[in-house]
Design brief:
Number of helices: 9
Distance between the termini: 58 Å
Number of strands: 0
Mean pLDDT: 90
Order of helices and strands: HHHHHHHHH
Largest sheet: none
Radius of gyration: 23 Å
Helix content: 55-70%
Shape: extended
Low-confidence stretches: none
Protein backbone atom coordinates (compact mmCIF):
# COMPACT_ATOMS: atom_id res chain seq x y z
CA UNK A 1 0.00 0.00 0.00
CA UNK A 2 2.83 2.34 0.90
CA UNK A 3 4.50 1.62 -2.44
CA UNK A 4 1.28 2.38 -4.32
CA UNK A 5 0.85 5.69 -2.40
CA UNK A 6 4.38 6.82 -3.28
CA UNK A 7 3.73 5.77 -6.89
CA UNK A 8 0.62 8.05 -6.99
CA UNK A 9 2.55 10.83 -5.30
CA UNK A 10 5.32 10.51 -7.91
CA UNK A 11 2.81 10.66 -10.80
CA UNK A 12 1.03 13.61 -9.19
CA UNK A 13 4.33 15.49 -8.92
CA UNK A 14 5.13 14.70 -12.55
CA UNK A 15 1.69 15.93 -13.69
CA UNK A 16 2.03 19.14 -11.66
CA UNK A 17 5.51 19.80 -13.07
CA UNK A 18 4.33 19.16 -16.66
CA UNK A 19 1.31 21.45 -16.19
CA UNK A 20 3.52 24.18 -14.70
CA UNK A 21 6.01 23.86 -17.55
CA UNK A 22 3.20 24.05 -20.13
CA UNK A 23 1.83 27.12 -18.38
CA UNK A 24 5.23 28.82 -18.49
CA UNK A 25 5.70 27.97 -22.15
CA UNK A 26 2.22 29.22 -22.98
CA UNK A 27 2.81 32.42 -21.03
CA UNK A 28 6.16 32.96 -22.75
CA UNK A 29 4.60 32.25 -26.14
CA UNK A 30 1.72 34.65 -25.52
CA UNK A 31 4.13 37.35 -24.40
CA UNK A 32 6.17 36.89 -27.58
CA UNK A 33 2.98 36.96 -29.67
CA UNK A 34 1.72 40.18 -28.09
CA UNK A 35 5.13 41.85 -28.29
CA UNK A 36 5.24 41.05 -32.01
CA UNK A 37 1.62 42.11 -32.61
CA UNK A 38 1.91 45.31 -30.54
CA UNK A 39 5.47 46.54 -31.04
CA UNK A 40 7.15 49.58 -29.54
CA UNK A 41 8.56 50.80 -32.85
CA UNK A 42 9.59 54.45 -32.97
CA UNK A 43 9.53 54.39 -29.18
CA UNK A 44 11.88 57.33 -28.72
CA UNK A 45 9.96 59.54 -31.14
CA UNK A 46 6.53 58.58 -29.78
CA UNK A 47 7.52 58.95 -26.14
CA UNK A 48 9.26 62.26 -26.80
CA UNK A 49 6.27 63.87 -28.53
CA UNK A 50 3.83 62.27 -26.11
CA UNK A 51 5.71 64.01 -23.32
CA UNK A 52 6.02 67.31 -25.22
CA UNK A 53 2.27 67.43 -25.87
CA UNK A 54 1.24 65.86 -22.54
CA UNK A 55 -0.41 62.79 -23.98
CA UNK A 56 -0.20 59.27 -22.56
CA UNK A 57 2.30 57.26 -24.62
CA UNK A 58 -0.12 54.32 -24.73
CA UNK A 59 -2.66 56.61 -26.43
CA UNK A 60 -0.20 57.66 -29.15
CA UNK A 61 1.12 54.11 -29.63
CA UNK A 62 -2.49 52.95 -30.05
CA UNK A 63 -3.25 55.63 -32.64
CA UNK A 64 -0.10 54.79 -34.63
CA UNK A 65 -0.84 51.07 -34.40
CA UNK A 66 -4.43 51.58 -35.57
CA UNK A 67 -3.59 54.08 -38.30
CA UNK A 68 -0.54 52.50 -39.95
CA UNK A 69 0.65 49.45 -38.01
CA UNK A 70 3.94 51.36 -37.70
CA UNK A 71 4.49 51.55 -41.45
CA UNK A 72 6.07 54.97 -42.06
CA UNK A 73 5.28 54.69 -45.81
CA UNK A 74 1.59 53.85 -45.33
CA UNK A 75 -0.88 55.60 -47.64
CA UNK A 76 -4.65 55.35 -47.18
CA UNK A 77 -7.42 55.41 -49.78
CA UNK A 78 -7.96 59.07 -48.79
CA UNK A 79 -4.25 59.79 -49.39
CA UNK A 80 -3.48 60.15 -45.68
CA UNK A 81 0.17 59.31 -45.19
CA UNK A 82 2.77 58.13 -42.75
CA UNK A 83 2.69 56.67 -39.28
CA UNK A 84 -0.25 58.80 -38.11
CA UNK A 85 -2.01 59.02 -41.49
CA UNK A 86 -2.03 62.76 -42.08
CA UNK A 87 -3.58 64.34 -45.17
CA UNK A 88 -2.07 67.34 -46.94
CA UNK A 89 -4.83 69.71 -45.74
CA UNK A 90 -4.40 68.52 -42.15
CA UNK A 91 -0.63 68.81 -42.43
CA UNK A 92 -0.86 72.42 -43.64
CA UNK A 93 -3.42 73.26 -40.92
CA UNK A 94 -1.21 71.73 -38.20
CA UNK A 95 1.92 73.52 -39.42
CA UNK A 96 0.04 76.82 -39.31
CA UNK A 97 -1.21 76.13 -35.75
CA UNK A 98 2.31 75.13 -34.68
CA UNK A 99 3.71 78.38 -36.09
CA UNK A 100 5.90 76.49 -38.55
CA UNK A 101 6.75 77.55 -42.07
CA UNK A 102 5.11 75.71 -44.94
CA UNK A 103 6.82 72.49 -46.03
CA UNK A 104 6.51 70.36 -49.12
CA UNK A 105 4.07 67.68 -47.96
CA UNK A 106 5.22 65.12 -50.52
CA UNK A 107 8.85 65.48 -49.45
CA UNK A 108 8.48 65.41 -45.66
CA UNK A 109 5.27 63.63 -44.60
CA UNK A 110 6.88 60.18 -44.51
CA UNK A 111 9.52 61.34 -42.03
CA UNK A 112 8.53 59.45 -38.85
CA UNK A 113 9.56 62.19 -36.44
CA UNK A 114 7.73 64.96 -38.28
CA UNK A 115 4.67 62.80 -38.87
CA UNK A 116 4.43 61.83 -35.18
CA UNK A 117 5.09 65.42 -34.10
CA UNK A 118 2.21 66.69 -36.26
CA UNK A 119 -0.09 63.85 -35.22
CA UNK A 120 0.53 64.27 -31.50
CA UNK A 121 0.16 68.05 -31.77
CA UNK A 122 -3.18 67.53 -33.49
CA UNK A 123 -4.37 64.99 -30.92
CA UNK A 124 -3.47 67.41 -28.11
CA UNK A 125 -5.21 70.27 -29.89
CA UNK A 126 -8.35 68.16 -30.34
CA UNK A 127 -8.23 66.96 -26.74
CA UNK A 128 -8.00 70.56 -25.54
CA UNK A 129 -10.88 71.56 -27.81
CA UNK A 130 -13.26 68.71 -26.98
CA UNK A 131 -12.14 67.71 -23.47
CA UNK A 132 -11.97 63.94 -23.90
CA UNK A 133 -9.81 61.37 -25.62
CA UNK A 134 -12.82 59.76 -27.29
CA UNK A 135 -14.00 63.04 -28.83
CA UNK A 136 -10.42 63.86 -29.86
CA UNK A 137 -10.29 60.48 -31.62
CA UNK A 138 -13.64 61.15 -33.29
CA UNK A 139 -12.33 64.46 -34.59
CA UNK A 140 -9.01 62.92 -35.64
CA UNK A 141 -10.91 60.32 -37.66
CA UNK A 142 -14.04 62.13 -38.89
CA UNK A 143 -12.97 65.78 -38.63
CA UNK A 144 -13.62 68.60 -36.19
CA UNK A 145 -16.64 69.78 -38.19
CA UNK A 146 -18.33 66.40 -37.86
CA UNK A 147 -17.81 66.31 -34.10
CA UNK A 148 -19.03 69.89 -33.66
CA UNK A 149 -22.12 69.00 -35.70
CA UNK A 150 -22.82 65.89 -33.62
CA UNK A 151 -22.43 67.84 -30.38
CA UNK A 152 -24.89 70.47 -31.64
CA UNK A 153 -27.46 67.82 -32.61
CA UNK A 154 -29.83 66.76 -29.80
CA UNK A 155 -30.14 63.35 -31.44
CA UNK A 156 -26.47 62.65 -30.58
CA UNK A 157 -25.77 64.92 -27.59
CA UNK A 158 -27.85 66.02 -24.62
CA UNK A 159 -25.42 68.61 -23.33
CA UNK A 160 -23.35 69.74 -26.33
CA UNK A 161 -20.22 68.34 -24.65
CA UNK A 162 -20.61 64.56 -24.78
CA UNK A 163 -21.99 62.13 -27.32
CA UNK A 164 -24.71 59.59 -26.61
CA UNK A 165 -23.40 57.63 -29.58
CA UNK A 166 -20.97 58.12 -32.43
CA UNK A 167 -23.09 58.45 -35.61
CA UNK A 168 -20.51 57.12 -38.08
CA UNK A 169 -19.98 53.37 -37.71
CA UNK A 170 -16.40 53.55 -39.02
CA UNK A 171 -15.55 56.30 -36.51
CA UNK A 172 -17.23 54.33 -33.72
CA UNK A 173 -15.14 51.28 -34.71
CA UNK A 174 -12.00 53.46 -34.84
CA UNK A 175 -12.51 54.84 -31.32
CA UNK A 176 -13.21 51.36 -29.94
CA UNK A 177 -10.14 49.94 -31.71
CA UNK A 178 -7.81 52.66 -30.43
CA UNK A 179 -9.14 52.26 -26.87
CA UNK A 180 -8.72 48.48 -26.97
CA UNK A 181 -5.20 48.83 -28.37
CA UNK A 182 -4.33 51.47 -25.77
CA UNK A 183 -5.36 49.08 -22.98
CA UNK A 184 -3.13 46.38 -24.47
CA UNK A 185 -0.18 48.79 -24.60
CA UNK A 186 -0.81 49.84 -21.00
CA UNK A 187 -0.93 46.24 -19.80
CA UNK A 188 1.82 44.83 -22.00
CA UNK A 189 4.42 47.54 -21.42
CA UNK A 190 3.24 49.02 -18.13
CA UNK A 191 2.74 52.44 -19.75
CA UNK A 192 1.34 55.22 -17.53
Amino acid sequence: MKRQTSKYFFYTVIVVVVIAACGLLLSFGLQKYYNARYPMEYQGVIESYSKEYSLPPSFVFAVVHTESRFDPRAVSEDDARGLMQITKDTFDWVLYRMGEEEMDYDEVIFDPALNVRCGTFLLRYLYDEFGSYDLALCAYHAGRGSVNGWLADEEFSDDGKTLKEIPFSDTRWYVERVNETRKIYQDLYDLE
